[in-house]
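Rotation project, supervised by the postdoc (A.L.). Task for the rotation student: set up a whole-complex structure prediction and record inputs and outputs verbatim in this book. Inputs entered:
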Amino acid sequence: MITAKRIVLASRPTGAPKPENFRVEDAELPEADEGEVTVRILYLSLDPYMRGRMSEAKSYAAPVPVDGVMEGETIGEVLKSRHNDFAPGDIVRGRTGWVTHAVIRGDRLRHVETHGAPLTTAIGVLGMPGFTAWSGLKFIGKPKPGETVAVAAASGPVGSMVGQLAKLWGARAVGIAGGADKCAFVKDELGFHAAIDHRSENLPSELKTVCADGIDVYFENVGGHVWDAVLPLLNTYGRVPVCGLVAHYNGTSTSESDRLPETMSAILRQSLLVRGFIQTEFAPDHFDEFLSDIGPRVASGEIKYREDIVDGFENAPEAFISMLTGGNFGKLIVQLS
Amino acid sequence: MITAKRIVLASRPTGAPKPENFRVEDAELPEADEGEVTVRILYLSLDPYMRGRMSEAKSYAAPVPVDGVMEGETIGEVLKSRHNDFAPGDIVRGRTGWVTHAVIRGDRLRHVETHGAPLTTAIGVLGMPGFTAWSGLKFIGKPKPGETVAVAAASGPVGSMVGQLAKLWGARAVGIAGGADKCAFVKDELGFHAAIDHRSENLPSELKTVCADGIDVYFENVGGHVWDAVLPLLNTYGRVPVCGLVAHYNGTSTSESDRLPETMSAILRQSLLVRGFIQTEFAPDHFDEFLSDIGPRVASGEIKYREDIVDGFENAPEAFISMLTGGNFGKLIVQLS
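Outputs recorded:
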């Protein structure tokens, strides 16, 4: 019998989550039934959307119940299998939640395929975050050669992919990130055409300077004061795929009040397209296409990525809390000891 | 020599326009040059977008200069022609502005074609407002059979067409209008499935009741507190073509403050598509298609419309001012004596 650890939602946060909103528990792992697989988790992905699952507020997915296991995607190694598609030693990914071990139906697991890139990319640049960037840009943003694509959290797993895809497809990539180190990474390592620090007092004018022809696609994953700076620069027929609003998740946005009429007026004036999306809309039909397109480019180093790997399962809550205010640098992944 | 009258912008309004923002002037009409046509105006269209032209604020079109003639579309009779396509007696439409007579290049005029419907429809249900409804619904709203389409200003030229097209295409039409008379017209005459009075204190709950399955398409031409009531009812993959924001034109919206995060959160949560548009985006390729599709239906009475015809050129400013707060009932047209 294996004793697993799991991290549950101890209480719902008000504002920014605190360590006491989480609780680490031990739990006896049941034996796998027919069709199930026992998995030892190697890596846990931490992502901003999880903040939404901690609240009861209306969202696109049901909240985690209090005392329920925190949701999340993981990479693991199969220990035992009673499903024909999996054998001990197989490396799989699945939505097991924040656990060290899981017994899960085999039809809810997928073999990890990274085209030669490291395993962790399967929950990062070649997983949900990378696919969010790829599908949102391909099906909603649709940048044309020569157009300007702007994205915030540009050193993160979504933003870094958005900018590199924009370049690959012939557009200009402008990244917005927090602090000099992240901006240097975005410009020098990822090769964006420009990177702007969102903490600068002159964000609106600095952004305007590097977007001299305006912004054609703004890939929205942040909201808040970055959106305020982007809005006046959007060109006619601009597209704004919205995949996240991290600045608002803790209810601590610094956006100016009463911006709605201004936002809707800009949508009208510039014939803007604003479109929310969750990557699950596109994944069933297009994930394999994404992986075969982007996987080899990641493996070869043509597309770059950065991961922020935290060691130790029990450090997940602290790392998650920090991520919500930009404390991470790259895709945040917890490596289980 | 003809002495024409014209109405110019005397000064820019702050908030709601006042009569003193307009001035009626006499002007000697020049002789038509080669390629030009002299037109006596029969009907002047008054439309909410003209409020935007009175301000210097950024818009999708240049403002009318102070002392400049107010912009607008008219229907007129050709008096003299030095253009091969037009002869005296022809009925034409063009953007002559608020004038009683005009000398205008023939290539800027079009013959009026209404498929047997009255002349005035060429600047109403079969003109820019009708085409705005048709193109925004066809290319952006895309209602599917059984879906719910909601529209405000539902007794007006855009809203009344939106709801009737929604019905024609198999969707449910819910109209929002100001006052019992307009609501009765929308429901009983136009045949919408339901009509709600936006002046009701219970607008949100009443709207929810008649949109039991939510709203799939909200055709936005008003903004303000109607948008506040619609937003929580929008379904996943909802579409919001935005063609106007009348509630905000005078800077007197009653929308609650700080709705931006809520709006963007709804866009994200429900994977909404919000798209501004000006009908000129679609007119070059699709106006003829619209006219041949809808013209016969208007002429036969299958598609209904209502006009609010004001008699006398010099009454245009007062009628326009009243329209901005819903004082008209149907497409507002000035008939020149």
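Student's summary: Residues 128-279 of chain A form a domain with the Rossmann fold fold (CATH 3.40.50.720).
Supervisor addendum: Chain A touches chain B at residues 58-60, 220, 223, 227, 236, 242-245, 248, 253, 255, 257-261, 263-278, 281 (CB under 8 Å).
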